[in-house]
Design goal:
By secondary structure, the protein is an alpha+beta fold. The protein is built from 3 helices and 3 strands, in the order αββααβ. It has a 3-stranded antiparallel β-sheet with strand order 2-1-3.
């Protein structure tokens, strides 16, 4: 979202680091109002060789939330994880 991107100095086309507690992946940012503030959307369908480092699967986990055993939840547990975004400065590439 442009609000989040502006706070971090990120523009579409910038290389960014997306880090979770588990791992880091590096990819190209696409800033859009189609994503709500506070949300990062990494579309499915990327092949591992399309990531500069890691992949979306490296960020996630396979721990099932016990609530999902009792209540139907349409979000996949392994695809919902907290991350931190940072712009990668060109001199660090």
């Amino acid at each position: 979202n442009p609000e989040d991107a502006n706070e971090r100095g990120i523009k579409s086309g910038n290389k960014i680091s997306v880090k979770s507690k588990r791992y880091e992946t590096i990819l190209e940012a696409k800033v859009t109002n189609a994503v709500r503030p506070g949300v990062v959307n990494i579309h499915e369908g990327w092949w591992i060789d399309q990531f500069e480092k890691g992949s979306v699967n490296h960020l996630t986990h396979d721990i099932i939330n016990p609530v999902q055993d009792k209540i139907y939840e349409p979000n996949m547990h392994m695809n919902d994880v907290g991350v931190r975004l940072t712009k990668i400065e060109e001199d660090k590439l």
